[in-house]
Specification:
Blueprint (H helix, E strand, L loop, with lengths): L2 H20 L10 E5 L3 H9 L18 H17 L1 E2 L2 H5 L12 E2 L1 H14 L7 E7 L5 E9 L2 E6 L2 E6 L6 E6 L7 E4 L12
Parallel strand pairs: 2-3
Antiparallel strand pairs: 1-9, 4-5, 4-8, 5-6, 6-7, 8-9
Helix pairs in contact: 1-3, 3-5
Length: 202
């Protein structure tokens, strides 16, 4: 993606922010989070290798204020990581399934994109509790990982399969579980009211 095209995407996202937020009522802008649930095995192994990544405590707080500047930053990070990281399955990259890692070698699959976006946004000052690794089910039934960004105007999804940053309600995924807002090593069930049933990916 050229720099011009990336800037155009950021500009378009800024112009569409108000309309995007207005599509969902206040109660729909945030996922309905239930009780504690199982940690994905890939994230568990990631925590064993990098325990500091899964011991981040965030005091209870309101989601970060979504300003135009922050929105531009979120969109830019999403675009940059989607452009820089080349898609490669865990088996191709590491010789095993469900190996969560930062894409420091320039390649990765869905959770690696999400981990890198989380790392970059945290480095820019966003709280860990507003940047949550999230497991979803795609329309075809396949599992997938994205990054949920909590803001004052709702929760948005950073996804390697989608160039736009969308409100979670604007995606066609079934949301299953995500990191706790208070403790990055704990995972919480998501009660996705848009689906008839929600199952936990184990």
């Amino acid at each position: 993606m050229t720099r011009t095209k990336r800037l155009a995407l950021v500009a378009a996202a800024l112009l569409g922010l108000s309309g995007l937020v207005g599509q969902a009522s206040a109660g729909e802008r945030f996922m309905h989070v239930g009780g504690r649930t199982t940690q994905p095995i890939g994230h568990y192994d990631f925590c064993q290798r990098l325990p500091q990544e899964c011991n981040q405590r965030t005091p209870e707080h309101a989601p970060i204020e979504l300003t135009r500047k922050l929105w531009a930053t979120i969109v830019a990070v999403n675009n940059t990581v989607n452009t820089e990281v080349q898609p490669l399955t865990d088996m191709e990259n590491y010789g095993q399934e469900e190996y969560w890692a930062y894409p420091d070698n320039g390649a990765g699959d869905c959770e690696d994109y999400a981990l890198e976006k989380r790392r970059r946004l945290m480095a820019l000052g966003m709280p860990a509790g507003d940047l949550l690794m999230t497991v979803v089910r795609q329309h075809n039934g396949d599992g997938h990982a994205v990054l949920t960004v909590r803001t004052s105007l709702g929760e948005f999804i950073l996804d390697n399969l989608e160039p736009r940053v969308l409100a979670w309600t604007e995606t066609d995924y079934t949301y299953l579980k995500r990191q706790s807002e208070r403790n990055s090593g704990i995972w919480m069930q998501i009660n996705d009211g848009r689906a008839d049933a929600v199952a936990s990916v184990r």
